[in-house]
Amino acid sequence: MNTTCPYCGVGCGVVAGRDGIVGDPDHPANRGKLCVKGTTLGLTLDDRDRLVAPMIGGQQASWPEALDVVAKRFGEAIAERGPDSVAFYVSGQFLTEDYYIANKLMKGFIGSGNIDTNSRLCMASPVAAQIRAFGEDLVPGIYEDFDEADLILFVGSNAAWCHPVLFQRALRARESRGTRIVAIDPRRSATADLADLHIQIAPGGDLALFAALFAKCAAKGALDYDFIARHTAGFDAALAMAHQADPGIDAELFDQFADMIAGTPRLVTAFFQGVNQSVIGTDTVNAILNLHLATGRIGKPGAGPFSLTGQPNAMGGREVGGLATQLAAHLSFDDSAHRDILARFWNAPHLARKPGLKAIDLFDAVHDGRIKALWIAGTNPAESLPRSALVREALERCPFVVVADCWPTATSSRADVVLPAAGWSEKDGTVTNSERMISRQRAFRPAPGEAKPDWWMFKEVACRMGFGEAFAYSSTASIFREHAALSTFENDGARVFDLGPLAAMPDEDYDVMRPIQWPVGRAEPRLFGDGRFPTADGRARFVAVSAEHGAVDEEKKFTLNTGRLRDQWHTMTRTGRVPELMAHREAAAATIAPADAARLGIATGDLAAIGNERGQLILPAMIGADQASGSIFMAMHWTEAHGSASTVNMLAGAERDPISGEPAFKHGKVTMRRIVAQ
Ligand code: SF4
Fold it and tell me: Which atom of ligand 1 is nearest to 8's Cα?
């Protein structure tokens, strides 16, 4: 059975068969290759501790009883306080069909924008920046660009650990064509170790570096003025602002690096959470896009900016309006014509007219009582959101909380109704990877007990709330066809997102569907090669971004950088079950630079207290030569379920990008002190 790996946004194809789970040799994302997480997928098919029956108030219930309660309590809250008194918080682990139904119910029929997703923590800054620059949330490039580039920059990305199969393509390009690899990161990560050059910036220094590169390329005569004149707007203001930027690195190194950029037309800039999870995430992405627009390096083989996605379906969620700030099919809340298109297509007279609450604001609204009923699915915000103590308090205060998940979590333990969800290997649908490639995910074993797919739960509740006519789906194929039809509805080519012929696909074709890239039906999979952008005048926009963001390093405080480990995924509900994966790092630790360790009198293995005004964690210290002085690295994976006193996210604050709402997980402030010597 051909299906797709459920972990990172590379979206590798896998084959589940008698011999276990192996890489799919025909999938274009990976051509049979898998990383260690993919090769151990078979070991995660373990139903111990699964949620297998609906629960109401801690008591087992039937599906009809549970669904009736959910529909009734949501209906009552809406009747008493209006549609904005309810919310859904969903997940990049959702399949596109799950996302489509949840979004249609909330925005189309309940009439509120209050559906957000844990992709807010991951992708919101690139989404906002791409809409500003291109007019639509579009990643221009494809994976083949990594094979064809002469220079690849990994910015705020430990791709060697977090997107291993794609990183291996970059390494192969180095072997075959001499591609140079540069890592731009405050940490000397595994990617930096393998790169030809590591540029160690200060945390948050990437915006200034890219703005300064833009100005330097202008000074070197390396800009594409023909492209700028014919296909862009806003150049002068953006360049004037870029001239004010200080690159923040050694002057000689900066000159050498700028020469490298100026002299290499085939340039790919791949960026990830180090860029996105910042109070300047959106502006930083625009600084990267500005450089590519100014040099005309976009939409060409081996050239383009490339936003790496974290979860397997971060892109699919964006296609169907999984973020509170978007409508389905790349339609926009800001455009009344777009709202009308969607209202007509869905026959939804009460379509939401304004964006809903973004993740952090949404849980603030739960905490202060504005949200009266909340449905959380496929995610564990009690451990994964910043200020986890406040999130837990919010869940306890909320009059009605529903949680749908596969395993019990710190979130489900605070729910009034728990719904058992079918997981990877048990449910059908589609996902879209970082390069806009739609792949089928297929069930190859039955769900345990009474577990059901998420789309079915939302559909059943929609029917009980009186919206049955609009939710008469019999299968994921019927949902996918509607999703595809919406992408073509009244689309005269102004919107790039287009699934065209898939709208008429019979069930049999959906069953055997092979990976397919959108916009469907175009011969050239790269976007913008013709210099046309989906803005009103067809031109891309430079965005004037200021490098003056006022990052202050408070005395005696460390910058807390949270991130991923090679062999773990999110809060370890699956990977934590595989001894082989646990062997890489057996327990949580706080890594500091040798100079800081010497100053604080800390040795590897000492117990240290890391804390701030939100709380304190006691963890073993690790001294890492990879760590920049003044910063601490802690993995985001460990939770109470895996022997940690709490989650590192109890220390993360509410600071977020003002445009995208993405939390600044890379820039917390903490103190550290030794409490017990080894
Ligand atoms: Fe899965 Fe990502 Fe590894 Fe591919 S690179 S096998 S998608 S975790």
Answer: 2
What does the pLDDT read at residue 87?
98
Atom 3, ligand 1: which residue's CA is nearest?
35
What domains lie within the chain, and their CATH numbers?
A: 1-45 (2.20.25.90), 49-122+315-514 (3.40.50.740), 124-308 (3.40.228.10), 558-676 (2.40.40.20)
Q: Which of 80-84, 105-109, 110-114, 586-590 has the lowest mean pLDDT?
A: 586-590
Q: Is 167 in the pocket of ligand 1 (CB under 6 A)?
A: no
Query: Is the beta carbon of 668 within 6 A of some atom in ligand 1?
Result: no
172 CA distance to ligand 1 middle (Å)? 17
Residues 473-494 have pLDDT tens digits of 999 999 999 999 999 999 988 8
Average pLDDT over residues 415-429: 97
The beta-strand segments (E) located in 159-215 are 180-184, 197-199
**Ligand 1 centre from 30 Cα, in Å?**
9
Span from the CA of 7 to the centroid of ligand 1 (angstroms):
6
Helix (H, G, I), strand (E, B) or coil at 70: helix
Residue 91 Cα to ligand 1 midpoint, Å, equals: 18
Place of tokens 């950029």: 261
| Parallel, antiparallel or unpaired: strands 180-184 and 429-432 | unpaired
Cα separation, 243 vs 676, whole angstroms: 49
**Listed range (43-52, 57-66, 163-172) with the worst mean pLDDT:** 43-52
pLDDT tens string 530-554: 999 999 999 999 999 998 764 444 4
* Pocket probe mutation, ligand 1, options 10, 41, 434, max atoms within 8 Å of Cβ: 10
Q: Is 37 in the pocket of ligand 1 (CB under 6 A)?
A: yes
Mean predicted confidence (pLDDT) in 30-41? 94
Question: What ipTM was reported for this prediction?
Answer: 1.00
The DSSP-derived string for 553-564 is --TT-EEEEEE-
Angle between the 235-242 and 281-294 helix axes, to the nearest 10 degrees? 110
Mean pLDDT of 578-585: 76
Separation CA 560–CA 566 (nearest Å): 19
Specify whether the CB–CB gap between 155 and 197 falls below 8 A. no
**pLDDT tens for residues 201-231?**
998 999 999 999 999 999 999 999 999 999 9
pLDDT at 642 over 70: no
E strand residue ranges, 556-654: 558-563, 590-592, 607-612, 615-623, 631-635
Question: CB neighbours (10 Å) of residue 207?
Answer: 27
